[in-house]
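Batch manifest, entry 17 of 40.
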Amino acid sequence: MAQLALAEKSFYAGFCLDETPDGRMTTASLLARLDPLDEPDAELSARGLFETLSVKPNNTVEEIRVPAGPGVLVLCGVTWQSDPQDDTAPSLPLARADVFLPLPRMGRLLVLSLTTPSLPDLPFYVALLSKTAHDLTVSSSGAMAGSSPDSGDERRGSIAEDVRADFG
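Output type: structure tokens
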């Protein structure tokens, strides 16, 4: 996870290992990053993301609307292979949920990527991811709520604070 977080230039990487009320173990990881966004129209950007991400046959793609604007939710199943060169190496089925939120006033695309092998707990994790996306607000100046308009780094820090508030 650390290598992926560095490779994707994530500003947040979190890992959860917990026990559910019924005694099962559950685990998930979350990566959050801000990518450059060239399209100044959030609707057009979200529509383009939807079309591009819908091409993959294993993706379930939905358009979403949160207070920050339009976005895209992608659900898919993936398999983690301990040794990609060896078909007999141990593997682990994973569920992945990604939220893509164009933030054109900031010139950024917020990407939240949650992965879990705890398939029975996926609805809980997706609800938590949804809460984070819905809690995110962008002011009219393009700065994140509570940030200083003087510094782009502060805007990024505020998004990180919003993600940490929901995921720890």
